[in-house]
Amino acid sequence: MQITTTFRHMDTSDALKSYAEEKLSRVQKYIDEPITVQVVLTVEKIRHIAEITITAKGITIKASEETNDMYAAVDAVLDKIERQLRRYKEKIKAHKPSGSTSERKISKSIVEAESLGQKEPVIVKTKTFSIKPMSVDEAVMQMDLMHKDFLVFTDSVTEGISVIYRRKDGNYGLIEPHTL
């Protein structure tokens, strides 16, 4: 497990860092290696905020908690993360693994707004990442765990690329392209 700890608006504390790392060791039983963990500990006046982002094989989980004591904030956010991981693990067990395990690579590009009227738009940033096959239920769960409004995924049944998104009324929408 690779853990990065960031202190904001407070002095670096080795005791607090080792406390968080010790507590994080209990989440290893829920997810496969490799695990990357980002811990951000912030003090704002009297508020102590602990934020944790865990990225592992195929999942990203984020949580934050705020109290008046940093150790209590770390404990509370880890309880929240552990609940999310437990729920994720139970849902994964309920789904049958798909026969196809091929991941697709997709690219996301950000285009400069002023260049849209021109013949060649200027690409500001491009990011390539893998999307693994999953069911619609898994995609909704993954989107909720990452606190995102939409998710592009490969449907494990149709093997086509689909998009799941959160509607303003709280429900979910699914976009499935159909070929002619």
Can you walk me through this structure?
The model has no long low-confidence stretch (mean pLDDT 81). Strand 3 and strand 4 (59-67) form a beta hairpin. Helices cover 26% and strands 39% of the residues. The relative contact order is 0.11. The chain is built from three helices and ten strands. Strands 1-2-3-4 form a four-stranded mixed sheet. It has a four-stranded mixed sheet with strand order 7-8-9-10. A two-stranded antiparallel ribbon has the order 5-6. Helix 1 packs parallel to helix 2.
List descriptors.
180 residues; 2 domains; alpha+beta; 4-stranded mixed beta sheet; Double Stranded RNA Binding Domain; SHC Adaptor Protein; globular
Give a brief outline of the structure:
With 180 residues, the chain is of the alpha+beta class. The protein is 26% helix and 39% strand. The protein is globular.
List the helices and strands and how they pair.
Layout: E1 2-8, H1 14-24, E2 36-44, E3 47-56, E4 59-67, H2 70-94, E5 104-111, E6 123-131, E7 133-134, H3 136-146, E8 150-155, E9 161-166, E10 172-175
Parallel strand pairs: 1-2, 7-8
Antiparallel strand pairs: 2-3, 3-4, 5-6, 8-9, 9-10
Helix pairs in contact: 1-2
The CATH architecture of the largest domain comes to 2-Layer Sandwich
Tell how many strands the DSSP assignment holds: 10
**SS-derived structural category:** alpha+beta
CATH fold assignment of the largest domain: Double Stranded RNA Binding Domain
Largest sheet data: 4 strands, mixed
Report how far the terminal alpha carbons are from each other. Answer: 46 Å
The residue ranges in which pLDDT falls below 50 over 5 or more consecutive positions are none
What characteristic shape results from the CA principal axes?
globular
For this structure, the quaternary state is: single chain
